[in-house]
Write a structure and sequence with these properties.
This protein is mainly alpha-helical. The chain has five helices and two strands, in the order αααββαα. It is extended.
């Protein structure tokens, strides 16, 4: 397999992954939405992010659930940065740096 064909395979996979995520935004953007639906949709990012964070703090192997120590330690300063700055990009950067430091030193 050549480098060019590998590039086209990766680009095609990226496009196929990106397309279904963008099409709903394009279709819904032109339609007016009732206020009750807009209020409901306002809670979805919070719910999704909470579920992702909760799932990353615990490791489930079979019927045993244990605390993921590195993720929990990285979560604490990341949470403080999130509450202090209210910026998603600063929060993500703080989390990545904290996790990188934990993995480097431990």
């Amino acid at each position: 397999m050549t480098t060019l064909s590998m590039f086209f395979i990766i680009a095609g996979c990226a496009f196929v992954t990106w397309l279904p995520r963008v099409i709903p935004f394009i279709l819904v953007k032109a339609m007016p939405m009732p206020s009750i639906i807009m209020r409901f949709l306002a809670y979805i990012p919070v719910c999704i992010l909470s579920a992702l964070v909760y799932a990353s703090l615990f490791d489930a192997t079979g019927s045993i659930t244990s605390l993921n120590v590195f993720n929990t330690i990285a979560f604490v300063p990341t949470l403080f940065i999130a509450l202090w700055t209210k910026s998603l990009s600063k929060t993500v950067i703080a989390g990545v740096i904290t996790m990188a430091a934990l993995r480097y030193f431990f």
